[in-house]
Structures are given as structure tokens and as C-alpha cells.
Amino acid sequence: MLLIFAFSPSYSVCGLSAGAAVAINGDSGDILYSHNCDVRLPMASTTKIMTALVLLENCKNLDEEIVATKEMVTVEGSSMGLLEGDRVSYRALLYGMMLASGNDAANAAAIAVCKSVEAFVELMNKKALDLGLKNTHFVTPSGLDAEGHYTTAFELALIAREALKNPDFAEAAAAKSATVCFGNPPYIRNLSNHNKLLRMYDDIIGVKTGFTKKSGRCLVSAARRDGKFVIAVTLNDGDDWADHRFLLDSGLSAIEVFNYSPDNPPVSVPIVSGDKKAEQVTISGANFCVPKGQSVSSSVCMPRFLYAPINKNEVLGNVQYYCLDRLIYKSNIIAKETVKNTNTSALNTFLEILKYMISII
């Protein structure tokens, strides 16, 4: 199966004030625009995107409370207002990181999850390696400047792309404000998101701001419009709000939605040792973005025949979609009916397979 789509040429932009910048297709991770996007630079509090992701992947219950220790709250810079002895939930720490950019929240999460900042940072670096990132290294969970603490615009965009797959992260990243409860005893606090784009850009869904004197202004943003998804990153950018509006608008106009809705009759696949000779299968729909001017191809990954038993709605294979020689999406191939196994003999099963193989030669 081959699917070809023709689009207009991709866009080009210039005149950004960022030291490094990138806009990527949020579905595929492909670069739509880049400027110094592979240069290693400090990233300030945009670090907390990875901190939040690692917290979410290692916390079984976001509503579980911890008691803040002196070690957790003894950190400089921006704060959610934690004090030693405060009771605070992991969920409140997540929002404290993402909205108030609390270095105390990042520190507290790291120590609560791993008993030490150093052990938590090891998890952050392991996650970076798992994502295939070669130009990212963390030293602090907060993003405070440190020797050897760096990423690139492109790799930071990929971290944001991964984090946005987590619904709890996506909800926090998109929140303009939030009500949290912590203290000794806990009481209700209101947090306001530092990300002004949430109030300046209609299609924004996050993500995170950052600033230190060394890094300059850093910003990660993401937007969805009419099924299209773009992530933008700027590092050391004195005009980041304007640059991101331009990057997001340009990126969204540079891609098209590929949509496949199965409307053909189900395909039949032969079955071995079943109470039916064939199983009807359907291909689930596909919806993702590709750059204009690029083609999409697909290949079916499924056995030539199936073994019973098969359960209704069982995933039997997939259709893989490729753009720019990269796998960017998979659609499941699903069984429409239940098929019971009727053979108890291995010999009979072998003979059925042999019969089928002879029939297709």
C-alpha cells in the first residue's frame, strides 16, 4: 500500500533574535525551521520539563503528600513558597514547577522521589539517553546554572514532545493558573503561570519559560490548530514572545494533516486451526501531520496467515506510515470476530500450514 500526497514547498523564516531556535512537527519530530538548533546552550528553568516528566514516570500517586525538609527548600531563585515542615502533594509540586517555576518544587520532587538531587538527576540523564539525545546533560533539576548543564534547541523540543504525551504534564503545562494546597497545616494557594503566551496566543497548549543571567530568556511553546501540532524552542532570546508567535504561525502553516479513515470492506486473512477459515480485520484510522511538499508511504506489517484462537478486537498487526524516510505513525490492524481453536493435534496444525503454503506458491 502506497499513499502519496503533494503539498506546497516548506517555508523559510529569518530575523529571529534568538541565539538558537527550532520549530518541529509535533507529530513526527521533523524540523520545520532551525537556527543553531544543535548548539549546546544552558536552558534555565525549561529544564523543569524533564524534571516534571521524570517525576510523573516515577510517582504512583500524584495526590500523595510529603513533608518538605530543609534540604528540599534551601535553593535560590524562583519559588512556589515551600517552607520546611510543609505538607505538599506531588501534584502541587508539579504545578509549582510548571506554573511558578519553583526551584523549591523541583528540589523537593527530586529528593522525595530519589532521596537525593544527584540520584534524581541520574534518572533525568538516563531518560535523555533513552530518548536518543546526544547533546543534553543535566546537573540540577531546577535549571540553575551549573557546569555541564546544557541542551540544544532541537533536543529540548524533543523532550517537550515526549512530555506532552503525558496527560498530567499536558494539563499542567496548559494551565494559566491553578489552585494548590500546601503548608503546615496546608491551606489553599493560587499559582499563576509565568508563560504569557497562554494569554497571548489562541492555540497555545504550553509549555515552559526559563531565565538566568547566563542562559538569557528561554522558552518552549507548543500549539495545536485544526489537527496540526507544532513545538517551538528559543534559547537566549530577548524577544521570545514575538518570536514564538511567528514560529508557531509559520510552523502551523507549513504542515498539512494526513487523515486516513477506513471506509473499505474489511480484509480477510486466512486462519490455521480455527472454527472459521478466515478472519476479517480492519485498520484503525490515522491522523498526523506532515510537511508540505512531502509524500507519505505506508506498509502493512502482519502475518500472511493467523493462528487460532483469536479474540475480537485483538491487535493482529499494524500499518506503518513513513515520511522523509522516518516512521512517524502506526495504525493497528484489529480482529473483527472471535475465532476458536479447533485442533488439538500439532500434526494437524502443521498439515494445515503446509496446505496453505502450497496454495500460495
Structural notes for this entry:
With 361 residues, this protein is α+β, with helices and mostly antiparallel strands. The chain has two domains: 18-253, Beta-lactamase (3-Layer(aba) Sandwich), CATH 3.40.710.10; 267-360, Peptidoglycan synthesis regulatory factor (PBP3), Domain 2 (Sandwich). The protein has helices at residues 48-57, 70-73, 90-98, 103-114, 117-130, 153-163, 167-174, 197-200, 240-253, 346-360, and strands spanning 18-25, 31-35, 65-67, 87-89, 177-183, 186-192, 204-212, 216-225, 228-237, 255-260, 267-272, 278-283, 286-291, 297-301, 306-307, 315-323, 326-335. The strands form four sheets. It has a six-stranded mixed β-sheet. It has a five-stranded antiparallel β-sheet with strand order 2-1-9-8-7, sandwiched between helices. A four-stranded antiparallel β-sheet has the order 3-4-5-6. α1 runs parallel beside α6 and α3 (90-98) packs antiparallel against α4 (103-114). The longest helix is centred in the C-terminal third of the chain and has 15 residues, at 346-360. The radius of gyration is 25 Å and the shape is globular.
